[in-house]
Design goal:
The chain is α+β, with helices and mostly antiparallel strands and 644 residues long. It contains 19 helices and 23 strands. GO terms for molecular function: catalytic activity, acting on a protein; dioxygenase activity; zinc ion binding.
Length: 644
């Protein structure tokens, strides 16, 4: 009777259902489970020696690994590339060195992380909080473990489980995964990263950080009675075993994310979301063999951050990150989109749409959230403008980005693709128009403030900043109203953008006519000067004001004499002058560069300026640079005096 051949150290016959590997020394076959060789790792082995042959022939050798360098092309046909997440990959990853994340991390206490802090400095770099005190978050006690998760969520709840070695996912009941977690012989490395429990009983014992609840669009702007479902992204439970690995990714919708390690430890590999890195990421992710290329080798810097038990990490929008679990770990996390990173969120969302990547942590109805935020910003801007206040600059910028996305989503060729996420009872065209109007008002007000530094418009909740006190303006430097108006008429500068219309003021009463003043002593001249209101801004008033300025620099007697001559004009002369001025204003509108003034006086007009005398019976020209205008921009005004 023929005997059945036996193999392996267990000396059992061949079983077609079990993986076996041949020793290159003794040529015997061994079960992978008996010699601790995984079927997925077998292609990476170049020469295999069984435990018995290792004593004489040495340990097994592996094939040369490819694609660890960004210069590798991965086109070799005789050597298989290393699969991201495999045991060989994890071993190599542990042995590598990376720049410390201390170069980019911001370390704060819990009570320092406030909305005012982020509004002032932005949320562009990861934030590490050593202790949860001051964060306003609720977590279970440190004795809480995996079996408690099963009790609070339910044993029959289905979860998505990732096979780390193959980087594939499958469905499993939570009870089955808990049994695997507590087993002593884990044949595979399985990972649960998307157990969202906001509708489960565990929601009552876990609360996200206070700063997240303050910023989150979903928490603040999504109506409770909305027909479209609210995105369930706020509370995740992560159950990861040793050597779990999540490859490089950007959170869906460009969301920011927070992590808190309750038990164990996690290692984050962080890459800045620069334009170059985002382009490289999109090219890498769209490649068919991206799971065999380590993305960190294609960028300049990848930072390593170790998150230990009890610590909390906040990762901003757009940061490309991968996660390694060196020991069994239980952690909590959540995703949130907000007003501080609208531009990066939109850019990440567009990349996500182009790649069409299926993910286990999607941000469903992201566009719907944007529509609700757009409506909120419109109401907010209107309220601020009514109160004569201006929105913060980051809100104006974010509103422009969102309104631009609205226009793109509502185009005829794109409407069919995006109309499913349009909220009910929403009028998109009217919202786009009204929001654009409020944005223009805010931008015009901002430009007016920049062009006129003396104007101060209140801004909504300005962050506390320390600035040096401004020096008080001397009254001598404040221009008189008549001079300022005359200067504007003469120079005709380009009009600044109109600021928001102020409330209408009651019309000022007409000034009384200038009474005749007899030439006399200084007291009479002073009284007449004080009692008479400033003349109507005109060409003559501008000339008079300029003459007063020059005469003030001369001797006191000469000044008195000039003032007397000016004040000796009769009412009849003033009325004639006004008629002439109206004609001159019409002439100025036709020719902006040159102003002609005509004056018919019954008496000789004596003006002494810069040592020159002008008499009414002679034709004279006076070149005058308008006040507060630089010499190269000043317009020369021509004064023509004719004989009586």
């Amino acid at each position: 009777m023929a005997t059945v051949p036996v193999y392996c150290i267990c000396r059992l016959p061949y079983d077609v259902t079990q993986f076996m590997i041949e020793c290159d020394a003794c040529k015997d076959w061994f079960h992978g489970s008996c010699v601790e060789v995984d079927e997925d790792d077998a292609p990476d082995i170049d020469i295999y020696h069984c435990p018995n042959c290792e004593k004489n022939h040495g340990k097994s050798t592996l094939k040369k690994k490819k694609n660890w360098s960004k210069h590798d092309t991965g086109q070799s046909t005789d050597i298989k590339a290393v699969q991201n997440g495999s045991q060989v990959f994890i071993k190599e990853l542990r042995s590598r060195t990376f720049p410390s994340a201390d170069d980019v991390l911001v370390k704060l206490n819990g009570n320092q992380l406030t909305v005012d802090y982020l509004e002032e400095g932005g949320f562009n770099e990861p934030i590490l909080v050593q202790k949860k005190d001051g964060l306003g978050m609720s977590l279970p006690a440190p004795t809480f473990y995996i079996s408690d998760v099963e009790n609070y969520v339910g044993p029959d709840v289905g979860v998505d489980v990732i096979d780390v070695t193959k980087q594939t996912d499958s469905k499993m009941k939570l009870k089955e995964f808990v049994d695997y977690y507590y087993s002593t012989n884990r044949k595979k490395v399985l990972n649960v990263i998307n157990l969202e429990f906001s509708d489960a009983r565990m929601n009552t014992i876990v609360e996200s950080p206070h700063i997240v609840r303050r910023l989150s669009w979903v928490e603040n702007y999504w109506p409770d009675d909305a027909l479209l479902g609210k995105p369930k992204v706020t509370k995740y439970c992560l159950i990861c075993v040793k050597d779990s690995y999540t490859d490089f990714h950007i959170e869906c919708g460009g969301a920011s994310v927070w992590y808190h390690v309750l038990k164990g430890e996690k290692i984050f590999f962080l890459i800045k979301p620069t334009s170059a890195n985002l382009s490289l990421y999109e090219r890498w992710r769209s490649s068919s063999n991206h799971s065999q290329m380590f993305f960190a080798d294609q960028v300049d810097k990848c930072y390593k951050c170790t998150l230990k038990q009890g610590q909390t990490l906040f990762i901003p929008s757009g940061w490309i990150n991968a996660i390694l679990t060196p020991v069994d770990c239980l952690a909590f996390s959540g995703h949130f989109v907000h007003n501080l990173s609208v531009e990066m969120q939109m850019r990440a969302y567009e990349i996500e749409k182009r790649l069409k990547v299926k993910t286990l942590t999607p941000f469903s109805n992201f566009e719907t959230a944007c529509w609700y935020v757009g409506r909120h910003l419109l109401e907010r801007f209107k309220g601020l403008h009514k109160a004569n206040k201006q929105p913060a600059p980051y809100l104006i910028h974010g509103a422009k980005i969102i309104n631009g996305a609205f226009r793109a989503w509502t185009k005829k060729q794109a409407l069919l693709e995006h109309e499913d996420e349009l909220p009910e009872n929403m009028k998109p065209s009217q919202l786009i128009k009204d929001l654009a109007k409020e944005i223009r008002l805010s931008e015009n007000a901002t430009k007016a403030i920049k062009s006129e530094p003396s104007i101060k418009v209140p801004v909504e909740e300005p962050p506390s900043t320390h600035s040096e006190p401004e020096e008080p303006v001397s009254p001598a430097h404040v221009p008189s109203p008549s001079r300022e108006k005359a200067r504007k008429k003469a120079s005709k500068p380009p009009k600044p953008p109109k600021p928001p219309k102020p409330p209408k003021m009651p019309k000022a009463p007409k000034p009384p006519k200038v009474p005749k003043v007899k030439e006399g002593g200084k007291k009479k001249a002073k009284k007449a000067k004080e009692s008479s209101p400033p003349p109507k801004p005109s060409s003559f008033a501008a000339l008079e004001s300029h003459a007063k300025d020059i005469l003030s620099k001369m001797d006191q007697p000469k000044k008195t004499k000039a003032v007397k001559n000016v004040l000796s004009i009769s009412e009849k002369e003033m009325s004639k002058q006004n008629n002439v001025e109206k004609f001159e204003i019409r002439e100025q509108n036709k020719n902006k560069t040159e102003a002609k003034w005509k004056y018919k006086g019954e008496q000789k007009c004596h003006l002494k300026t810069a040592g020159l005398w002008f008499h009414g019976k002679f034709h004279a020209k006076l070149l005058w640079n308008a006040p507060r205008i630089s010499s190269h921009k000043a317009k020369h005004l021509q004064l023509e005096q004719r004989p009586c």
